[in-house]
Write a structure and sequence with these properties.
single chain, mainly alpha, 3 helices, 78% helix, membrane, transmembrane helix
């Protein structure tokens, strides 16, 4: 009787071991597949990045609003078209420096 139980236990353990091996291979295959998919999917950047990320939403709105007001003022108060265009280009070139001077947080 005990030899029969030992034989059945050995068969059960061998079956469990085969199932574990199959499950292990499936898990390894699934992990390899996930790694490949992870490698080829682009990574999404969360949050704000870039130059405008340094400023709050209100500061960015103020920058845009004041720039538009300045552009509107240039187009209203300056008559010569060449001078208008020169002032607009100058404003757009100087705008980053103005923003840094006005809103820099390092000081």
């Amino acid at each position: 009787m005990s030899k029969e139980r030992a034989r059945r236990r050995a068969a059960r353990e061998a079956q469990l071991e085969r199932e574990r091996a199959v499950r292990g291979r499936r898990m390894a295959r699934r992990e390899r597949r996930r790694a490949v998919v992870r490698r080829f999917t682009p990574k999404l950047r969360r949050g704000r990045t870039g130059r405008l990320a340094r400023h709050t939403r209100a500061e960015r709105a103020a920058i845009v609003l004041l720039t538009l007001v300045a552009l509107f003022g240039i187009w209203i108060f300056v008559d010569d078209l060449a001078l208008r265009l020169a002032l607009v280009v100058l404003l757009l070139l100087v705008l980053p420096a103005i923003v840094v001077i006005a809103l820099d947080r390092r000081t």
